[in-house]
Amino acid sequence: MKKRTKILTAAIVCFVSAGLSFGGAAACGFFEREKWAEANAAIAKKTGYYETPQKGEYAADGAVTALDIDAGSADLVVRAGDADAVRVEYYDRFPGEYEIALEDGRLTVKQTRKWSFWEGFGLSWVLNLFDGDWSDHAVTVTVPADAAVLETLTLETDSGFVECAGLSATGALAVKADSGRIAITGGGFGGADIRASSGAVTVSDCGFDSADIRASNGRVAVNGANVSGLLKIRADSGGATVENASADTLDIDVSNGNIALNAVKARAIQSKADSGRTEWNAVECDTFTGRSSSGRVKLTDCAIQTIDYISSNGDFTVTNLAGASAATAALDIRASSGKITVFGDGKSGKAFNNNLQGQAAISIKVKLSSGSFTIEGA
User: Fold this and answer.
1) DSSP state letters, 13-32
2) For residue range 316-355, what is the model confidence (pLDDT) as tens digits?
3) How many structural domains does the chain have?
4) Of 122, 147, 172, which closes a domain?
5) Does 208 map to a domain?
6) Which of 25, 107, 205, 326 has the fewest CB atoms within 10 Å, counting from its CB?
């Protein structure tokens, strides 16, 4: 049997099997909401869990200077808004699921017991799929707009997203999501430690003394951030984008994914890309030090005084480097395999050195194991 025929036969078998499975499930009432509702009611009666999550509300009866919120298996939304006091809205799946306390200005919200799939979820999550309504799967904290500057802010979920909007902290911001995205919008913080195990991280229009942002499996996007110290970004899988941002030092490391910088200013930038492209546009810095294992590097309309880069496999292209010309740039280029082009002048051979030890205004030192080097535009 020809290879194409085998593939077609396998596809038909899979399609027919899937049809039979879905047909049998439908015949057994698998997709009937009423069947799931009956099963959910039976589990609720047996375990003591609520058949339908019960809404609860809390209003702080004193000043709140710090938030420590662990939403457990729910989504978490923390925001500044129109409120007369700090308010918490939540949904209990069993009596007393969430414990809330205010002590010495610190408001603590914590899930009292992590529940199992069958016992805790019951089957209510399936009903949510039927209804398309997940509003009973969130903890929402609203802080009065005129009291939105706190001392510290600690936010955490085990399974759910975290959203924080319009709040600030004179001290630390700590955010952790084991399975879900993180979005931080607006506000200023003394320092930040933001970690997502599985999900994207988005930071927009924020100020920090320093920030450490990590995503194990998801993309990191920073837009409009102003960091007076170190901005450290780690993305194991998903890439990283930084736009309209400034920092004293930007340290960005991506294991699997692309690095993109646009309109970024920093004193020093350190970049490492194990597998993926590095593309910069309108970046200003004194020193750029970088390493890449596989992927091209492209710098466009940038103002950089010193470049020191090593690439194992990929082209390195510089277009319109501010202030650079054949007379003002100190170049030390090494290409094991590839072509070197400097200001339109193709060079034969595998090395090009131009006044590296002189008094040139710009220093460029690049080593390529496999790839071409090009610098063009004055």
Assistant:
1) HHHHHHHHHHHHHHHTTTT-
2) 999 998 877 777 778 787 777 777 787 776 665 577 777 6
3) 2
4) 147
5) no
6) 25
